[in-house]
Amino acid sequence: MVKPSRSYRVFQGVNGVVLTLVVLVTLYPFVNILARSFSGERQIRAGEVTLLPKGFNLTTYEIVFQDSMFWRNYGNTVLYTVVATAVAMVLTTCYAYVLSKKHLKGRGVLVGIAVFTMFFTGGLIPNYILVTSLGLKNSVWAIALPNAISVFNLLVMKAFFENLPTELEEAAQIDGLNTYGTLLRIVLPLSKAVVATMVLFYSVSFWNSWFSAFLYMDRTDLMPVTVYLRNLIQGATGGGNAGAGTEQLSQVGANIQSVTIVLTALPILCVYPFVQRYFVSGVMLGAVKG
Amino acid sequence: MSTSTTSAPPGTEDPPPAPAAPRRGKRDPARTGWRRALRRDWQLYSLAILPLLFFLVFRYLPMIGNVIAFRRFEPGGSIFGEEWVGLRYVQMFLNDPTFWQVFRNTLWIGGLTLLFCFPVPIVLALLLNEVRRRSLKRFVQSVSYLPHFLSIVIVAGITMQMLASDGPVNHLLGWFGHEPIRFIQEPEWFRTIYVGSEIWQTAGWGTILYLAALTTIDEDLYEAARIDGANRWQQIWHVTLPGIRPTMVTLLILNVGAFMAVGFEKVLLLYNPLTYPTADVISTYVYRSGVESNSFSYAAAIGLFEAVIGLILITSANQLSRRTVGTSLW
């Protein structure tokens, strides 16, 4: 290798500073929110809270934990995520497997049907009318069914299935397994990596989603925790703490949002370090084909 | 498509081909082909039924449902409306000053997003690519991906907390003796806030594909460039950037396609009546007039207009890039 020039060393130095700034700017809001969630009302109002909690207390956490609606909505989030992910996985796996069979007659049309929906969608109003007229409102199906297949995930999975060695499947069929048996006993056990990735993709997106529930649920006790948080935020901007509801809540309005943000993001932040690489590999797999 | 026996995989339960099999395709090839495909692969086709039903009901039916833009619709009635009214709703929105305001706002926010959120990941990826310490690179990557995984509600919540009158940004302004700014209530700040939080959330994740593309560039090309006397910048200009050009073009096309559909959910979370003059975009206007005010046909007409423009944009971006740089999505 050539000895690095002086200007290159300067560049490396600047680069280091820029990337450090990137890390700081990305992390600071998290740390600040965490610090606020443990801080006292007065210190937050005075703008004293930066990296560490000031006037440490757990009052706000206690108040949120005592709010039965918070737990209800948190439970709803878990329920919606599990049901919607299960539905999505079944449909996506089936279709991806079909699309991965290169010899299949009409495969091009089947791929086209899916891919076209990436570029043109019905839009909010027709979807809303459809879901309403199907009577899905106020049920988990309003969240699970309209979002059952993400075409991006479908293409990722299809790409993975296409790269599986065909010999094993052929051997299984000679041994008398039908298509369903081959998919369940041969293909899926070989595809644990992509199945895990897809479960993560779907469950994170359903955990994070709020708009479907906001649109299709009429009662507060059916909302997921993201909508609970949204109501807190909107209450705050609309002036006062109208969205927060109880008197107790408005007393600590300053950091109740921080506490709810922390609690909503917590599960994602906990699994993030372990699952991050699956996401990255999933995106790459999708990009190869996409 | 002829049904020659060449492609039949082993192990299928086909009856052995008749002696004259290769010639069989001559009589009505399509028909025989389908019958044969169905007999051989009916189990595969059966797996596609539920997913196809999904696409039909939840993707294509709403597309057809857009006809209510040209029909009178009654809540509780047919989802395709009651009777034709022609272009009444289209004329209505074309004569609606609010529509033109949200149209302008959409162009502004979409344009600014494209201008800032498209190049930032490229620059970040190039910078990351220059980091020699693997552990350091991995750490920066892991941190910068993080915001991508958070709910848009959390991002909106964090944004508001950061910009609150007692938040860090105003705290910082205070150091310079500046009066606190009520960012969330000021229309002139909305675009900055929107684009800023968008970069914060998406820049890191956006680098993944570029970093992958960067690793595929042949080291020999850099070696050759060095021998030709290229300095670092020239190497980036002549080797690195051409190497990631297909990725850049693909993502640019996708970004242009998403131009009109600016982050609907984020605007919905961040805006309020005070900031409507700059923040209200087509999709939020559609939501308010349709779902909140029950003017379904009117809202559907505007939504359809937006979707058609989006389709035109992505198709023309795709055509343009196929003609000029030879890369395209399809």
UniProtKB/TrEMBL annotation, chain A:
Residues 74-267 form the ABC transmembrane type-1 domain. It holds the Pfam family BPD_transp_1. The keyword Kinase does not apply. The chain crosses the membrane at residues 12-31, 78-98, 110-129, 141-161, 182-207, 256-275. GO terms for biological process: transmembrane transport. GO terms for cellular component: plasma membrane. InterPro entries: MetI-like, MetI-like_sf. It comes from the Bacteria. It is found in: Cell membrane. Keywords: Cell membrane, Membrane, Transmembrane, Transmembrane helix, Transport. SUPFAM superfamilies: MetI-like (SSF161098). Belongs to the binding-protein-dependent transport system permease family. This is Carbohydrate ABC transporter permease. It comes from Streptomyces coeruleorubidus.
From TrEMBL, chain B:
It is found in: Cell membrane. Keywords: Cell membrane, Membrane, Transmembrane, Transmembrane helix, Transport. Residues 103-317 form the ABC transmembrane type-1 domain. GO terms for biological process: transmembrane transport. Residues 1-32 are annotated as: Disordered. SUPFAM superfamilies: MetI-like. Belongs to the binding-protein-dependent transport system permease family. This is ABC transporter permease subunit. It comes from Streptomyces coeruleorubidus.
